[in-house]
Design a protein that fits this description.
The complex is a heterotrimer of chains A (181), B (115) and C (62). Chain B is mainly alpha-helical and 115 residues long. Chain B has three helices and one strand; from the N terminus they run βααα. Chain C is built from two helices and one strand. The chains are: A alpha+beta (181), B mainly alpha (115), C mainly alpha (62). Chains B and C meet through α1, α2 and α3 of B and α1 and α2 of C.
Chain lengths: 181, 115, 62
């Protein structure tokens, strides 16, 4: 079994043990399917591989745990969606994902997460707000070159909105912007 | 390893952003052949087992407090009513998922039965 | 908080963001998706959360 890790359109071979399987206008980055126990370290290692790749090319991460029998099966699974995946790659090219979560700590008045989200959306190509335990849980697709400005804005917003506790993590490969709309 | 936190709260308190992630190995690598319904059933069984365990622990603790004295009549009555309610709620939930009381008594192998 | 425990806490919250993305994000390709099966290990919930989830799960009165 092989694991499907990401979609890309860059023909340059990734470092072993990863391989590229052509699939129409795009290609699939595949690797050996991991066996046995998965722990945090294994996840970070896998993430590290993906992040090294995304530093050098446009990439759409594939949902964790996607496995198929072999290269032929990988190509067969991806080719039917080749055109829309190629379009999705265009949307994310040159950008990374930044995560923001904001909560109102106990004892504070409800913070204005709408204002935070509005300001940050303005600095991103795209945004995706998710349901979750936090009042604000969102992902922003930010130009690589714009990440510093984005983070600076987060810090300013934190200063402005003392009633909020804001956590910003990243940069991540564009997990929340990988599925074509 | 790359540091992923770009900006943290001013007081540095990250507790509210943590979430206990269930045993990662189980969450991410175990394959299921079962259909969605039996997965839901299995989950219900587990959650209810835990709830039942806690209910029994709480009841035992409450009885110890009652025996030890120092509670008003009203408090004792409230406790009694609460546990009756919990018992009834548990029964409803078991019925809802088609589970018998024995279904909630997990076999922990060398550790024996849970309840 | 010491530098090390802060670093550990940061790693942990980043792991939450990572796992959310791994399980909820990414392209969904038809394949053999391996999923979670709850296990006895899954006991990391507070009592309050459990009690409130019992309340929510109760079949509603008509």
């Amino acid at each position: 079994m092989i694991e499907l890790l990401a979609i890309t359109d860059d023909p340059v071979a990734p470092p072993p043990p990863l391989r590229l399987v052509p699939a129409g206008p795009v290609a699939v980055v595949v690797g050996p399917a991991p066996e046995g126990e998965v722990d945090a370290e294994a996840l970070w290692d896998r993430e590290s591989l993906l992040e090294d790749l995304v530093d050098e090319r446009a990439l759409l991460p594939i949902r964790y745990g996607t496995r198929v029998e072999d290269d032929a099966a990988a190509a067969a699974a991806v080719v039917p969606r080749g055109a829309e995946l190629a379009a999705a790659l265009e949307r994310v090219r040159g950008a990374v994902e930044v995560s923001v979560r904001a909560i109102t700590p106990e004892g504070e008045e409800a913070g204005d997460v709408g204002a935070v989200h509005a300001r940050l959306s303005g600095l991103a190509r795209e945004h995706a707000r998710h349901d979750g335990p936090e009042p604000l849980r969102a992902a922003y697709l930010v130009d690589r070159a714009g990440v510093d400005v984005f983070v600076a804005a987060v810090r300013e917003l934190q200063q402005e909105h003392r009633g909020l506790s804001i956590l910003c993590t990243g940069p991540w490969p564009p997990y929340s912007f990988a599925e074509p709309r | 390893m790359k540091d992923k936190v770009l900006a943290a709260p001013l007081n540095g308190d990250l507790d509210a952003f943590e979430r206990k992630i269930p045993h990662l190995s189980n969450a991410l690598s175990r394959r299921i052949d079962a259909d969605p319904e039996s997965v839901q059933q299995g989950l219900a069984q587990l959650v209810l087992t835990i709830v039942e365990l806690l209910r029994q622990l709480m009841e035992r603790q409450a009885l110890r407090r009652i025996d030890g004295g120092g509670l008003t009549d009203e408090q004792v009555e409230n406790l009694g009513r609460t546990f009756m309610e919990l018992d009834r709620a548990m029964e409803e939930l078991r019925d809802h998922f088609g589970l018998e009381p024995e279904d909630l008594n997990l076999d922990l192998g060398p550790l024996g039965r849970l309840l | 908080m010491s530098k090390t425990s802060q670093a550990i806490a940061e790693r942990e919250v980043a792991l939450v963001d990572l796992v959310d993305r791994l399980l909820g994000g990414g392209v969904v390709i038809a394949g053999e998706i391996t999923l979670a099966v709850a296990d006895v290990d899954l006991v990391h919930v507070s009592l309050r959360a459990l009690v409130s989830s019992v309340e929510k799960a109760r079949p509603q009165e008509p």
